[in-house]
Amino acid sequence: MTSTAITPVAQDHGSADVLTLTGVRRSYPTRSRFNVLTGRRVPVEWFEAVRGVDLRVGRGELFALLGTNGAGKTSTVELVEGLGRPSAGTIRVFGRDPVAERRLVRHRTGVVLQASGFPPSLTVAEMARAWHATLTRPLPWAELVDAVALTGRADVEIAKLSGGERRRLDIALALMGDPELLILDEPTTGLDPESRRSIWDLIKARVVAGSSVLLTTHYLEEAEQLADRIAIMHEGVVAAEGTLAEIVADAPARISFVRPSGLSLTDLDVPGASVTASDTVTLTTHALQDTLRRVLTWAGDTQLAGLDARSASLEQVFLSIADTQELR
User: Fold this and answer.
1) Order of strands, edge to edge, in the sheet holding 109-112?
2) Which end of the chain has fewer CB within 10 Å, C or N?
3) Is the sign of the CA dihedral 283, 289, 294, 297 positive or negative?
4) How confident is the model at residue 118 (pLDDT cuts 50, 70, 90)?
5) How would you classify the pairing of strands 253-258 and 280-285?
6) According to the CATH classification, is domain 17-31+46-247 in 3.90.550.10?
7) Which one-letter DSSP state was computed for residue 301?
8) Which residues contact 285 (CB under 8 A, 6 or more apart)?
């Protein structure tokens, strides 16, 4: 799959931040009772899915929003899309309320949902032309279809497309309105590695052209490769936020190897490192280079089978946040 560069965007209406969330909360009723006076059911118990979230996405920035299970990520994105009102707090998209001022926001926003419901009997070209006709300032539909490598499938009915092809069509239609804010909810689910990389290139080109992107994804590598800044939600709040380097800065690096039979771990001098040993020896350290040097000096001419040394990763931080939930 190859992608085609498409330019426009770069409209600047003066606001430094395209998206801001301030003290945002969202609650759902979990139990209700019947009120005989009104003849309606009234909520009596609530679940707070989002519990005071502050976020901002700058102009021309790609912001990745990650979340552990039940973190409130989907609820937060729905509020940004204007599909509901927050229970408390404020959301501004281009400085506007995405619900009350939807008419001023929607045409500047592109959305890729987790699942789309296109008419199955339309062909790719028919769907693209129909969508093109609804947009305020559309990009050429044929260019977008080509950009997601569907030109050769233009006359195929949507019902006959593979899951990955339908996903690529989702992305083409979201980009067709030349959005200043692009909301991508799990955009590369179901894509093969080559297609995923091509979509990454297409998204990067949109950012270079001036689009801001709010990305949710379960692929941590996707966030690492694309995002300028990342937030990890957990139990309704933002548990970590910043650049990738900032998020992993306090997490330790790891060194592991198969325990050698001819060496004693009591002779291993690694100040500041934590050592756990069974059949495999694992060290966690905030000074990877020094600790690794000491391990290699200790080993001397002995080959350390399975030797692996790596800096802290986004996956490591994400799992440590998720583990706090599992331990409760």
Assistant:
1) 109-112, 181-185, 212-216, 62-67, 229-234, 237-242
2) C
3) positive
4) confident
5) antiparallel
6) no
7) T
8) 252, 253, 254, 255, 270, 272, 273, 274, 291
66 contacts 220 by C-beta, under 8 angstroms: yes
Cα 128 from Cα 161, distance rounded (Å)? 14
Parse the chain into domains and list their residue ranges: 17-31+46-247, 252-311
| Strand locations in 140-252 (E) | 181-185, 212-216, 229-234, 237-242
CA-CA distance, 69 to 151, in Å (whole number)? Answer: 37
Q: Helix and strand tally (H, E) in the chain?
A: 10, 13
Q: Which pLDDT does position 141 carry in this prediction? A: 94
Query: Is residue 8 scored above 70 in pLDDT?
Result: no
- Report, at the CATH architecture level, how domain 252-311 is classified: 2-Layer Sandwich (3.30)
Query: Token digits for 122?
Result: 């339309």
Q: Which of 226, 211, 217 is nearest to 185 (CA)?
A: 217
Q: What are the CA-CA distances from residue 208 to residues 18, 41, 86, 175 (Å)?
A: 15, 50, 32, 14
Can you read off the two tokens belonging to residue 130?
């129909």
Name the pTM for this structure.
Answer: 0.84
Chain segment 35-52, per-residue pLDDT in tens: 888 888 888 888 999 999
